[in-house]
Design a protein that fits this description.
Blueprint lengths: L1 H14 L5 H28 L5 H8 L3 H7 L3 H24 L5 H18 L1 H9 L1 E2 L2 E2 L4 H23 L7 H22 L4 H22 L27
Helix pairs in contact: 2-3, 2-5, 5-6, 6-7, 6-10, 8-9, 9-10
């Protein structure tokens, strides 16, 4: 979690008002410009793939490389900005899906579909972040691993809340959460490379696997959960990208 904490601290420091109106307006302008360049980088990723160069990003933004470097210290800085944008996109889809007031199986299916929808729409962004390099330069942070840690930690809390609600041993919540997140991530990477089945199909298979584990464990405690009936309590998670990109 150290990398996540450091990233959030840097963003909060950059976003804090200085009390100087002129300086704050200029900082706000720089933040807006950085955001525009990040969106241009996403377009360049769609066109050139994860091997894109800074020249490709500059061309997509309609500026020269020197202009781009006025807003990003180096390639690693742009990589981290892309990582933050990817986290925002993922969490904006995933959190509402995880917290949906649905029956267990539809809720699992909705959450999985949210993840697979994001990597389907932004495959090259995911490949870039998973690779951990930009234009041949190793990145200073592993955004995919950081997000995996955040999601697994939140899911552990969610599972623990439900297990305690049903009078079950919640000690299994953490390894179970990390196992689920690892399985989904690995399956997602396999699916992006192979595309041997539709998104609906892979989501359905994973839904069945995850539900079978939940149902099997519950039955060991003589608990029967209707997969198509909303639970009495809708436990939720708080999972979000802490701050917008700061220039």
């Amino acid at each position: 979690m150290t990398a996540v904490t450091d990233r959030v601290k840097r963003e909060k420091a950059g976003a804090a008002p200085t009390g100087d109106a002129r300086r704050d307006r200029w900082r706000k302008h720089r933040v807006q410009r950085r955001a525009e360049f990040v969106e241009a980088a996403l377009r360049a990723l769609d066109e050139h793939g994860p091997d894109l160069a800074m020249e490709d990003v500059a061309a997509a933004a309609g500026v020269t490389k020197p202009v781009l470097y006025r807003h990003f210290e180096d390639k690693a800085d742009l990589y981290e900005a892309l990582g933050r944008r990817g986290t925002e996109i993922l969490f904006s889809r995933l959190v509402p899906a995880i917290n949906a007031e649905l029956a267990p199986v539809p809720r699992i299916r909705t959450a999985l579909d949210a993840f697979f929808a994001v990597i389907e729409e932004h495959p090259n962004l995911y490949r870039l972040l998973a690779r951990g390099t930009f234009a041949g330069k190793p990145a200073d942070s592993d955004v995919v691993a950081e997000d995996k840690e955040l999601i697994a930690t939140a899911l552990s809390t969610l599972l623990g809340d439900y297990m305690r609600m049903f009078g079950m041993d919640s000690g299994a919540a953490e390894p179970w959460a990390y196992g689920i997140v690892g399985m989904v991530q690995n399956t997602g990477e396999w699916w992006l490379d192979r595309r041997s089945m539709s998104r609906d199909a892979v989501v359905e298979y994973l839904t069945r696997i995850i539900w079978a584990a939940i149902d099997g464990l519950a039955r060991e405690y003589d608990i029967t959960i209707d997969p198509n009936l909303p639970l009495e309590a809708n436990k939720v998670v708080q999972l979000r990208s802490e701050q917008p990109d700061a220039g």
